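Handout, section B. The chain below has 188 residues.
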Amino acid sequence: MKISNNKELTIQISILIICAVSIALQIKPNAKAQTTYCQSPLYTDRNPTLFSLVPGVQYDVRIDSAWEDNTPEKNAIQIGVSKWNNWSYLNCSNISFRNFASKTFTNYDEDAPAGIIYWQRKDPQNGYLGATFHYIDAAFYRTVSARIQIVPRVTNTNSIFQYFGSHETGHLYGLANVVKVVRFTQIQ
């Protein structure tokens, strides 16, 4: 086939381009069901980076000696906190909690050193049964240690200290409260 003029050549090239574009638009890439990166927590009311522990760190845990060794409360806190170790790969944090030991506190307002989480038997004065206080390092733009305070008069009824262990530790991942929180006035 002989092309007679430039106008005919332009029309044929235009038709080829239109065909190529319409075919390209109909080709869909395969979707991947899993991602290779992590997303921020779904349940957060705060900056999930600033209020999360530094990823890849093994944190030591110190539990107030006001809870005597081998008491249900102290053991349940350790169980609750340790449950997060089972998820460190799946939640993309690679964080673990270890070296659970007793500590006698003389100053309940002192921040824990980097890499350490304090559990204190002290009323946080917030109207709740517990509270998490983050120590944020500006260089990391992350939480590097924390103090968790639990009201002293609460006992381990219905394994509530195991709940405290997992719930309050969840705040160290930048998570907010995802369940109704029991108010101080509801405990008899």
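Note. Residues 31-37, 180-188 have pLDDT under 50 and may be disordered. Compare this with the example in section A.
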